[in-house]
Specification:
42% helix, 21 strands, single chain, 603 residues, alpha+beta
Length: 603
């Protein structure tokens, strides 16, 4: 019987199959058969009732078609569909399949989570909401043309239920049929907001670090400005600062009462800013920084809360950054940079710290300038005092010397030997005092009469110094040898003559009795300076006195050994200081001394 070949689980289906046939209908049913010596296999059982010519019972014609291969293909397709559906639904990427008419066909859960339920579009022909929102309609057209397209990360502003901005990265892929047609495309979106925020934060941090590095570099350039006048250094610093901040004008202002005075500035030609310009303090942006006591930075004044301030109404400066400046702990004024147009970017903490550091440097330069002015005034007063005192001291000294001489002439025959000795001591003391005062006058005169610096030929200077010492050279049988050609330098000829006259005169004075003095003058030209050496063959100097000998009234010998007041080398050092050079000594006792004079090159 056929029933023996039907799998037990399929027998109810077989009963329903034949019941349908018995009722006169044609019936088709899928069953599993289990023949001997063969695994179960699926068939399609198709039956049709036969006529009544066969007797009282009923009969049917039945065929069984083996569908094992088709069933395997269906199962494979189902498995594939299941896998695809699992991947499609569980993918973290937002995926939607879209037809050629831009109508969504299928959307996964990630898509609904990202964009909401956009699986249907109410009106046919309406633009796809996501494609239009991310500006990918051209990519959709490219996909229908058979091209795979990457959609760079796009910033999507908040809307609808989503209250946060997002960054979305996407792809478009075509879906091809066997005949090559493209009925649909796949749109894949990935929410890269977190990654993009990290990238943007990193970019912001990198930009901040770059600006801070630039701030430090500019501050280093400012700190390394050559030691010129304070005004020039401040102007150059302002120029570097305004370029660094991207603003047109920089200035340093001094505030006194309700008056602001422009002290230094850096601005493009025609900006209308000049040193000494006076302003009403309350109508300037500097008042903002001074009133706050810290940095005030406004990138766009008209859009800021300070748009109604009197300074904006008066000057219409759209961008401003300023900070107070103090000298010795007391308020001085303000350091400011500004432009009539808005700043290209917002000012950050690095810009504010740059302003604070620059303000400290400006305060230090202004304080240094004030100190130098006070020192110059004090030195001038001291030199004037020394000059006047020395000049006035000679008059009573001459009077003492005159009366002592008169005493000796009138009463000499009545005085004993001790009295004559005392008179001689008094006259000698007065004479030495007068010479000391004359030397002090000479020392105080150096640098008092400021003369125009001019080219001076050292060969002529040395020639004049030797001429002034002709008698001393003759008495000691000394000589001066000049090795090489002496250079031309900038300076004061009379002071330089005094310099070489003192050095050559000392060589003659401190010579050894057993040999005549020989002075050799030579020069070594270096990249930036000339070094002139005055070498003698005299008694020499011990190393411990190399520094002290240039002080005023610093003597190494008593007056009965060598004449002099100990001021000659002090005069030499002062002359060299006035010429921006330096002087030092090398010596070996009993062999000689070499004085080295370094003077700047250039005319």
């Amino acid at each position: 019987p056929f029933l023996l070949f039907v799998d037990n689980d399929s027998r109810p289906d077989l009963d329903r199959h034949f019941s349908a046939v018995q009722s006169g209908r044609r019936s088709t049913t899928e069953l599993w058969l289990t023949p001997d010596k063969r695994p179960p296999f699926p068939v399609i059982l198709e039956s049709i009732q036969l006529g009544d010519g066969w007797g009282t019972g009923w009969r049917c014609l039945t065929t069984a078609l083996d569908i094992t291969e088709r069933k395997q293909a269906e199962q494979a397709l189902l498995a594939s569909e299941t896998r695809f559906r699992a991947i499609f639904e569980q993918s973290p990427l937002a995926i939607q399949i879209i037809g050629r008419d831009a109508q969504p066909r299928m959307s996964n859960r990630a898509w609904v989570k990202l964009w909401g339920d956009s699986s249907t579009i109410p009106t046919p022909g309406q633009r796809h909401p996501v494609l239009s929102r991310i500006g990918a309609e051209k990519s959709f057209t490219e996909g229908l043309a058979g091209n795979s397209v990457e959609i760079p990360a796009i910033h999507v502003t908040a809307s609808g239920e989503r209250n946060d901005d997002r960054w979305v990265h996407g792809y478009v892929y075509p879906i091809r049929e066997l005949n090559g047609g493209i009925p649909e495309i796949v749109l894949v979106n990935e929410d890269v907001s977190e990654r993009k925020r990290i990238e943007l934060a990193l970019a912001d941090q990198t930009e901040l670090l770059r600006r801070q590095y630039e701030s430090l570099r500019v501050l280093s350039e400012i700190a390394a400005l050559p030691p010129s006048s304070a005004s020039q250094r401040l102007t150059e610093a302002l120029d570097l600062g305004r370029r660094h901040l991207g603003l047109s004008t920089g200035l340093i202002s001094r505030v006194e009462g309700n008056r602001l005075t422009v002290e230094n500035y850096a601005a493009p030609t025609g900006a209308g800013v000049t040193d000494g310009t006076l302003h009403d303090f309350a109508l300037t942006c500097c008042s903002l920084a001074i009133e706050q006591g810290d940095v005030v930075a406004i990138a766009h004044m008209r859009r800021s809360p300070l748009a109604g301030h009197a300074c904006y109404t008066a000057h219409r400066l759209e961008s401003y950054i300023g900070v107070p400046v103090s000298i010795r702990g007391r308020p001085y004024g303000a350091l400011s940079f500004y432009s009539p147009t808005p700043s290209a970017r917002e000012f950050d903490d690095g810009d504010k710290e740059f302003m604070r550091l620059l303000a400290r440097w400006v305060g230090a330069v202004l304080e240094e300038e004030a100190t130098l002015r006070e020192l110059a005034r004090s030195n001038a007063e001291l030199e004037q005092f020394a000059y006047v005192s020395s000049h006035d001291l000679r008059q009573p000294l001459r009077q003492v010397s005159s009366y002592v001489s008169m005493l000796e002439r009138r009463y000499g025959d009545k005085l004993d030997a001790d009295a004559h000795e005392f008179i001689a001591y008094a006259r000698d003391g007065a004479l030495r005092m007068d010479r000391l005062i004359v030397d002090l006058l000479e020392f105080s005169r150096i640098g008092r009469n400021i003369k125009a610096i001019a080219p001076v030929a050292l060969a002529e200077v040395v020639k004049d110094a030797i001429a002034n010492l002709t008698l001393s050279l003759s008495d000691t049988n000394g000589r001066v040898d000049i090795r090489g050609e002496l250079p031309v330098v900038k300076g004061d000829a009379s002071d330089l003559v005094r310099l070489f006259q003192n050095l050559i005169g000392n060589a003659i004075k401190y010579s050894l009795p057993e040999r005549p003095p020989v002075v050799e003058i030579s020069v070594e030209t270096q990249p930036m300076t000339h070094v002139v050496t005055v070498q003698d063959n005299g008694i020499g100097i011990l190393p411990e006195y190399f520094e002290t000998i240039f002080g005023v009234f610093k003597r190494l010998h008593t007056p009965d050994q060598y004449d002099g007041n100990g001021i000659g080398l002090a005069i030499c050092k002062k002359v060299i200081d006035q010429h921006g050079g330096r002087i030092w000594v090398d010596s070996t006792p009993s062999e000689g001394t070499a004085f080295h004079i370094e003077l700047p090159r250039g005319l």
